[in-house]
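As a warm-up, study this chain.
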Amino acid sequence: MNHATQHSSVTPSAVSRARRRLLAAGLGVAGAAALSCPALASYPDKTVRIIVPYAPGGGGDVFARLLAERLTIRLGQSFIVENRPGATGTIGSRYVANETPDGSVLLLGQTGEIAVMQYLSKQLSYDPDALLPVALAGDFPLVLVAHPSAPFNTVQEMVAESKKRPQGFSYASAGTGSPGHLAAAALALKTGAKLTHVPYKGGGAALSDLMGNHVDMFFSPISGVLAHVKSHTLKPIAAASLERAPALPDVPTVAESGLPGYSFSVWGGIFAPPRTPQAVVTELNKQINEILAEKESKEKLEAVGAIIKPNSQADFRKFIENERHKYAEIVARTGATVD
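Now compare it with the structure written out below.
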């Protein structure tokens, strides 16, 4: 098992301690009751671990490490990132779901393990619904990219050309049931495009074969192909976001190409174990939204293609519900499974 841990040592300041005292004092009668436990009144009172259920270097790492750094400074207690990869995010997710619900262990949950895997596998070892949504950290839209020599430049051209070819076109994915796989499957279902799925064990291998011109296209998180698009070693066809991605403003969306509402991304958010006190969840949501509103934090995330929007807990829960509904329908129609 691969582990990577980032430590930040920041001494709690008098300002941080005063902030926590003011928070406890300003919650009113109901808030005071919720924080009657000393551990809650001083949250966090020990190191907090943010579990990323994938190997270091992915989009989840980007969100988790920025939040850990900023939360350490703001709350005067160390927040560290711990990678627990394996089984498409399910190992780390199961670990957090079974942890003590005191806010000392959090999950940087992403699209697959929160909104997709329960429809792909009947053997899931945790309940995604039981994890408590805290805040959406950011959203990496998928972008459809092709080798520069591909005989199409738009979604419409790709669809039309695929229907003329006996074998159609092939598309790579990071694995069966990944957002990239299901985004392409949905595109084929909605347009009648003749597409063949070629699953890989991770986005890196898929990207390598695309650049070697061994497959025709790939729906990748924008963060994974942004440099290649800017250097013209890959050709962007369309973004899978509802609006044009800020990092690629000249690339049209699939929705613009005649499929309104078409949206697929790899997003990441903070989740807490079941039964974590509401006061802890509320404080974390507040802190995370303030971090995402900071000019420097926002610029860092947008520079790698993320879309950042403030969100309440209710906003995040609704977002997850919509994602689950979308993926449940696609999985049912495609018959995709990982069992």
